Amino acid sequence: MKAAAREPGALRGLARLAVRRRRTLLRRLGGAALLWCAGGALGVALAQGSFGGGAVPVGPQPRSVDEWLVRLQQASSVPAFVGTFVVTASSGAMASARIWHLCEANNQFERIDALSGPPRSSFRRNDEVSLVLPEAHVVRTEQREPGGRFPNLLRPGADQAAAAFYTAREEGPDRVAGQETDIVRLKPVDALRYGYRIWSERRTGLVLKMQTLDDGGKVLEQSAFSEVQINPPQPLVQAQLKMTGIEGYRSERIERQRTDAAQEGWRLQQGVPGFEPQGCWRRQMTAAGPTLQWVFSDGLATVSMFIEPFDAKRHVRQGVSTLGATHAMSHRWPDARGTWWVTLIGEVPLPTLQRLLDNLRHDK
Considering only the top CATH level, what class is 256-362? Predict the structure, then answer.
């Protein structure tokens, strides 16, 4: 799940990471909704889509991991749902949000209100996202890449790629938020990624609960609907999708430019098995220079690598922060006198981030 920080150079330990984790929650919620309209895909949605297919129940024969994952492209649309979604980490940290989602033809709309942390609301129409920040009186808008939403960047063939690194085991029925579900556990074949246990609503395939598991089966993080309405009256959902009360707010537009890591002079000497490059973007984050975001994914888990010029005033502490299943690693690169500051963030084991960092090379 998941991994996209706005200002990697400003990362200051676990408290700062917790704030970023709340932002991640909003993106995870939004991404989950995207499955149910054309083009939606991300980590939760990958699992979610694999359970799709309308009212077809789980058959008597266990599905292979390929069959669970390929259901993403075959999932039927859920026209609307509304619910309260809660994410909890093993440390006890928690974030929650209220989500309204609606599909109309090939368009998808959603609203997400944070119920914990600073007040904020996210409004989406397809790939156009507006974040309303009441305390700052700001509306921040950006155009996100189609199929490139946190935490998974699903691409053609991603189901086959993920199938090479996970196995699937069905674990029977259960109830979540009053809904009948089927459970599947996706177990990784190596120690470079986490496993998942996923509860799927039986009729529609909507993912109602997911746990991220370490190699010993310990729950690192859990995300679940505490209550949900599937297919509520659409006019009731539409009434919540209007952005109101923002008179006098300042509008900000976040621009990013798609680029190529090789053209920027960056490469990996040796890749990490399964984690293929998904895209690279340049943003002008500070006056010191642009920040490069390089994204890797195995089809389920995603890692973002941020590269920016070293700034002694801002980049004063390197090291590792952890919250739930998310690790963040910041280092001066390539050594203590290096001219670059590199931050990696992902819902993967720490050695995965370390291997990416150790194999990073710059040719310019």
Answer: alpha beta
